[in-house]
Amino acid sequence: MGTRRARGRAGRRAAVWGGAVALALPLAVAAGGGTAEAASCNPSAGPYQRQVEKFLGRPVDGRQSAADCTAVRAFQRSHGISPAQGYAGPLTWQVMSTMLAQRAAGTTPNRAGDCPVNRGRIACVDLTRQLSWIQDGSALKYGPVPVRTGKDGTETRTGARKIYLRSIDHWSTLYNVSMPYAQFFDRGIAFHSTTKSMWNPPGSGGCVNMRPADAKAYWNLLGKGEDVYVYGRKPGT
Question: Which residues form the signal peptide (predicted)?
């Protein structure tokens, strides 16, 4: 992520969020729009037409209708998938598949035991499902929540790490962007808040992007020296 400088407030907030937070995933997009909007949609059925129709709650017939196209395009626009033409292509289905895998994790994201349970409190990051959570031993303390990790070429590195720097109002001089609630754990890679969709492809410059409320909760629950474990492989990398 390059060299960064901190600005503004410093220190750790005392408030701690308790319990697990349910993962909220959009499973349907309403089909709407007028004639002009429908006319600009891609009229062709994509290779994942049936899967996408099912995901969005549309009639599953494998044929592209104006209403199908409008619904797919609304989903694409919501998550920054480009081009947003309503075409049920590989990237759109990849995003939806990730959402389905996240939903399937439920409240037992470490069911397979991939994240260590012998280190006390630890933040787990599963790149494959684009999920993160905090556990203490085998007890879930927060999450699981969706995250947005590094894209192809700037992948979030795997392995066991520790938080070494915290900066609540961080500013990246490399990317010229704000990184609220930044907690660095691997040579410039950090948990931090972003306003982008967690399902916005292709991904970050290596950091673990989080929704603002989740990044704030991680700030309150974690501290310098605490463990982070990253594993798996992000789809498309």
Answer: 1-38
**Burial letters 103-140, b for 16+ CB under 10 A, else e:** eebeeebbeeeebbeeeeebbbbbbebbbbbbbeeeeb
Q: Encoding tokens for residue 99?
A: 């959402």
| 3 state DSSP class of 218 | helix
Q: What number of helices (H) and strands (E) belong to the chain?
A: 5, 10
Summarize pLDDT for 199-237 with one digit per residue, the tens: 999 999 999 999 999 999 999 999 999 999 999 999 999
Q: Please tell me the total number of residues recorded for the chain in this structure.
A: 237
192 is catalytic: yes
Does residue 41 have an active-site annotation?
no
Walk me through the domains of the chain, giving residue ranges and CATH numbers.
4-23+107-231 (2.40.440.10), 35-102 (no CATH)
**Contact (Cβ atoms closer than 8 angstroms) between residue 151 and residue 220:** no
Cα 174 to Cα 64, 133, 205, distances in angstroms: 43, 28, 10
Which residue among 41, 69, 115, 207 is the active-site one? 207
Given 41, 79, 115, 192, which residue is catalytic? 192
Residue 5's alpha-carbon distances to 2, 23, 166, in angstroms, are: 10, 32, 11
List, for residues 87-146, the tens digit of each pLDDT value. Answer: 999 999 999 999 999 999 999 999 999 999 999 999 999 999 999 999 999 999 999 999
